[in-house]
User: What shape does this take?
Amino acid sequence: MATRWKKPLLLSVLTSISLALGVGVRPAQHLWQAHTHDVPRSGVPAPGLVNDISSLNPTAMQTVAVAADSAAALRQLRELLATARARHLPVAIAGAQHSMGGHTVAAGGIRLDMRPFRYMQLDTVSNRLTVGSGACWAEVIPYLNRYGRAVATMQSDNAFSVGGSLSVNCHGWQPNQPPIAATVESLRVLLADGRLLTCSRQHHPDLFQLVLGGYGLFGIILDAQLRTVPNERYTYQRVASPAADYLTTYRRCVDANPRVQLAYGRLNVTQEHFLQQATLNYFVTERTAPPGDELSEPGLTGLKRAVFVGSKRSSYGKQLRWDLEQAVTRYAVGQTFSRNQIMNENPTFYLNRTGGQTDILHEYFIPARHYNAFRRVLQRRIPSHRADLLNVTLRNVYADHDTFLPYAREEVFGFVLFFNQALTPAAEADMRALTQELIAETAQLGGTYYLPYRLHATPNQLQRVYPQFSAFIRYKRAYDPQELFQNQFYQQYRALGNAAAKR
Assistant: This one.
C-alpha cells in the first residue's frame, strides 16, 4: 500500500515546490525522471571480498568484527595480532570505510571492523568525551545532545567513524580552526607487538603525532578523549558574490565576527557560469541550547537526492540544482538551528548507488593568498577532462601543529571537489591524469592535497607535497618492524622510505 502512494506523493511535492519557487513544471519532470532512474545497483558482494566507498578497490580479505566490550576487545585484538605476526598476514583497520584509496584494505590479510567498539562516556566536569573508535558521529551527536554539548570538529556529515576521522585528521565546517587533531586530548593505541599505550602531547608525543592523520599504519586506535563545545543555537546567514570576491566576503562576514561558529562556501559548477559565482553560508551564535534540545536530521531527503542525482551528466540538472539551492537558502536566512542539528546530517541524499559509476572526492588545500589562482586552475583544467564535476565546497582550515603529516601548514582554504566517474578503465585513466595535473598546480602554489582519496599521485608528487613522508615511513617501520599494519596506500608509497634511506 505504501509504495502505491509514496511515488505519486513525491511527484506532487516536486511539482508544488517547483511552482512555488517560480521555476515551472519542467523541473518537476526532470527531478521525477532522476528519481525513477535512481535504482540501487543489483547483486551482493562476492563472499570474502571487501571494498571501500569508491567501489574501485575490491579485495580478498578476512573481516573480523571487534568485540564491543573493552576488556574482551583488547584480548581479542592481542590474540589476532599474535596470529597475524606468526602467519605474516597484513592487518588493515576499518570503520565506516569512507576513504577511497584502499586505506582500509590489504590483499590476503585481516580487516578489523571496529564499528562494534563504540562506547561513550562524558566527563561532565571537564566536558571531555571518551569514545570508542568504532562509534560514528551519528551516535556521538545525540549522546552529547542530552548533556547540552556538541562535537568540536568533525566532517559535515554524521556517517563517519571517530577512529576513521582521527586517522585522516578530518576537518569540516568549523571555520578558523585547525583539523580535528587539535581537539584530541589523548588516545589509547594498541601497537603491533601488543603493547597498549596512552598517547598525548605529554606522553609518547611522537606517536601521538604519527597516529593522528596516520591512516591506521601505526596501531589500532581503541578510544580517544575529545574536547567538546556547548551545543548552541545558530542563526543561518548567506551572502552571494562573484567567486573572485569570495575571500573578501569571507574576511568581512566570518573573520570579523567572532560569533560565527560554522561556515562553508559553494561554487557554481554550471556550464554557463563555471566557478564564477559563489555563496558563503554561515551560522552565527544566537543562544545556548538546553540539554536535550530537539534533535533531528534535516528533512526532504528524497527531494534533495533527486536534485543531486538529477545534476549528474546534465547541464540542465546542474543549473536547476544551483537555482534551487539559491532559492532555498535565501528562504532559510534568519532561521535558527542547533549546532547538533546542523551536524547531524546523513550523506544518504548524495551517496552513489547506481551500477557502472561511482562518485569520487578530491580536496586541495590552498594558501588563502592563492585562492583565486587555484580557482582559475580549476576553470582551465577540469573542462578538458571527462570527469563530471558535481560540487565544489570551500572550507577554511587553520594551521595544524599536532600531526606529523599536516595538510594545513598555514591558513588554507580547502577546495572539496566531488566528481561522478564511470567505472571503466578509460574513465579511471582520465581521472588519474586530471588528479596529477591538479596536484602539480597545487604544489606550484605551495598547497597540499588530501591523502584519503584515490592513489593517483605519483611518488614524486607525494614526496614534493609532503617532504616529510619518507621520515613518516621510517617511523612506521620503527614502531612496526614487521609491517603488520598495511593498506593499499602504504603499499603503493612505502618505497619512498627505501629511496630516502639510500640517499
Residues 1-11 have pLDDT under 50 and may be disordered. The radius of gyration is 23 Å. The chain is about 35% helix and 25% strand. The longest strand covers residues 277-288.
